[in-house]
Amino acid sequence: MRETAAVEAHYRDEIPVRQGDPFAVRRTEAIREFFRAGGFPTATLEDWRFSDLDGLGRTAYRRYSDVPTLVPAQTDELPGWVGDFGCRVLLSEGHPLNADEFQNRNGLEVGNLPAIPAADEPHDWGFVAPGEEPGGTEADLDAPLRHPLEILNAGLFECGFRVRVGRSQDAGPILLYSLRHDVGHPAMLHPRSVIELAAGSRLTVVEAHDGASETAGWTNPSTLCRVGENAELFYVRVELESGNIAHTGRVTFQLARNARVRSTVLSLTDGKSRTDTAAILTEEGAEVDLEGLFLGVDAAKADQHTLAIHAARHTTSRQLFKNVLSDEATAVFDGKVVVAPGAIGTDASQANRNLLLSQKAAVHTRPRLEINADDVKCAHGAAIGRLDEDALFYLRSRGLGRMDSHEILVRGFAGEVVEKVPVAAVRSLAKDGLTRVRESRSFAA
Amino acid sequence: MTPLLEICGLHVEVEGREILRGLDLEIPLGETHAVMGPNGSGKSTLAHVIAGREGYEITKGIIRYGGEDVSELEPEERARKGVFLAFQYPVEIPGVNNTYFLKAAVNEIRKHRGQPELDAVDFLSLMRDRVKLLDFDEDLIKRPVNEGFSGGEKKRNEILQMTVLEPTLAVLDETDSGLDIDALRIVAEGVNRMRSPERSFLVITHYQRLLNHIVPDRVHVLQEGRIVESGGSGLALRLEAEGYGKAAAVTA
Ligand SMILES: Nc1ncnc2c1ncn2[C@@H]1O[C@H](COP(=O)(O)OP(=O)(O)OP(=O)(O)O)[C@@H](O)[C@H]1O
Ligand SMILES: [Mg+2]
Questions:
Q1: ipTM value
Q2: pLDDT tens, A191-237?
Q3: A205 part of a folded domain
Q4: How many domains does chain B divide into?
Q5: Which of A63, A327, A347, B32 has its CA 20 to 30 A from that of A219?
Q6: Which domain holds residue A84?
Q7: What's the whole-model pTM score?
C-alpha cells in the first residue's frame, strides 16, 4: 500500500508545471483517478494478459527536462523522409522544434494545446470527467477515453497538439513527428494530439514516433480524432522506436454522419508496443477501416487492441490486421466489435492474418463480438500460417532465387496493407521494415 | 549427340511413397515428346522432379540435362539453365503483381546468360508482343499472379510466361485441360512457333486432341511410375481408341 502511495506521489511530482496551464487542475485529478482505478494494469486483467505493465510501474520514469535535446537548427539531423512533408510538426522530447513554421493554409490550423484559450472546455480535448460511470446498457461511448493510460496521459502530457481542418477544406498530408533521445535516466514521454475535421473536409495525417534508447524509456501517446459530417480522414501511424523503449499508444476516432476514416498502424519497432485503436461510429452512415501491419524481428512484440463501437444505424467497420513474424517476435490481436441496441444495418468485419517465418514466433489472437441488435452483418476470421511451399516452388521454378522468392511472398502479404497507404514516404518506411525482415536471423532459414 | 534430357532408371519417393519406379526417358534437342498415362501414374511427379521440387527424393537413377547431372540443383538453378515447367495447377500468389514477377524472372535468367537486364520499357514491349500473339487479356497481366484467373486463363498465363522466358526445355503438364477449343488452338500455335532445333518440349496430356495441334516426334506411355511403351505419333491415336489397359498388357 505504501508502495503504491509512493508511486502515485512520484507521478504527481512529474506533472509538468506551466504558467497559466488551463489543464493544471485536470492533471492532478487524472493522476489520482489513474491510481484509484488500480494504477498500472497487470497481466491478471483480461485486457492486459499479454502486456503486463507492472514493470513500467516499478521503474521511476521521469519526464524530460523542458529543453529539447535537438534545437531547431539541428532539424537536418532528422531522417530524410521527414523532408517529404510540406506541413509538419517536429517534436523533440515532446517539445516543438518548428513552432514558427506552423501555418494556416487550406483551412488547416495547427496549434499548441496548453496555449489553447481557457474558454475551450477541457472536455473538447477528449478528457472524460473523473469518476464518470458508463451509462446503463447503452453502448459506452467514452470507453476508449476511460482507458487507464489515456487518463495518465491526460495528467502528464507535455505539449499537446491540435490540428483543425475547416469546413469543406482539403488539407494535408501533415506529419506529426515525435523524436526522443536517450538522456541517461529512465525517461517518459506523453504526447497528446487532437485532430478535428469540420464537416465535409479531408485530411491525411501521419503520426510517427521515433528514437532509440539503451536506457529504459517509455512513450505513451494519445490521439483523438473527431471527424465531422461527410468528412474524410486518412490516418497513418508509424511506430519506429528502437532499443529499450516501451510503447503504449492509443488513437480514438469519433465519426459523425457519413464520416469516413481509413486508419493504418505500422509497427516497425524492435521493442515492445501496445496500441489501442478505437472507432466510435456515432451517427448513421459512418464508415471506418482499421488496418495494421507489424513487421516483427528479434524479440519485438506488438499487442494490437481494437474496438469498433457501432452506436448508430447503418454504420460500417472493417478491420484488417496483419503480422509478419520472424525470429522470436510475438504478435497479439484482440479485436472487439460492439453493436449497440438499435444499431440495425451494422456491417462489421474483422480479419487477423499472421505469417510466421520462424518456429519461435508466436501469435495470440482473439476476436470479441458483442452484438445487441438485429439485422447485423458481422464477420470475423483469423489465420496463422507459414509461407506457401507451392508458391515458393512456383517462383523458384521461374528462376527467382530462394531468398528473393521468400521476400516476394512476404512483400505480397504485407502489400495488402502497405499499398493502400496514401503517402509514399510511409510506404518506403514499410519497405525498410521488410528489408529488416529479410535480414533477420530466421528468414528463409 | 547427347540428348538434352536423359533420365535413367529413376526412382522417386514422395512422403515415403515410391511414385516413379525405374523411369527411362530421353529427349534429344529440338524434339517434342508427349507423355500420356492414366491418372496417378506419376506424370506430374516426373514434371516436378525435372523442375527440381523439394521433397521429391531421388532414391535411385539419374537426371541429366545438357549432359550434366542436375539432380542436386535448386529449382532456380535449373530454370536459369533453361528448364521451364508449365504447371498442371498454376499457383495463385496474392499481392504479387504478374508483370513485376515476370520481369524479375526474365532479368534473373538474362543475368545468368550474361545478357543485359531489360529495363521497364523493353520489358513492356516484349510483354505486349507476347500478349498479342497469345490473344491474352492485357488486364490479366496487371493483376496478382493467377489470382482469380479462370482455369483456362491460368493455363494461358503459363504459356505466356514460357514465351517470355524462352526456355530450352519446356515441360507442359496438362496445359490443354481447362482450355476451350479456340484457346487450345492459340496455345498450340504459341508452342509450335517456339519449336526450333535449339529447344525441346515434353508435353504431358490425356488427350490426342492436343497432339493434333502439337504433333510430337515421340509418344511415351507412363504407367505405375515407368515408361511402358514408346512410339511415333500414331501411338496416341491407338491409345485414344483402346485405352491404357492394352498398353499395360503389351508389356506385362
Ligand atoms: N505430396 C504427395 N504425397 C503423397 N502422395 C503423392 C504426393 N504427390 C503425389 N502423390 C501421389 O503420387 C501419385 C502420382 O501423382 P501424379 O500427380 O504424379 O499423377 P499424374 O500422373 O500427374 O495424375 P493426373 O493425370 O491425375 O494429373 C498419385 O497416386 C498421388 O496421389
Ligand atoms: Mg498430373
A1: 0.96
A2: 999 999 999 999 999 999 999 999 999 999 999 999 999 999 999 99
A3: yes
A4: 1
A5: A327
A6: 2-387
A7: 0.93
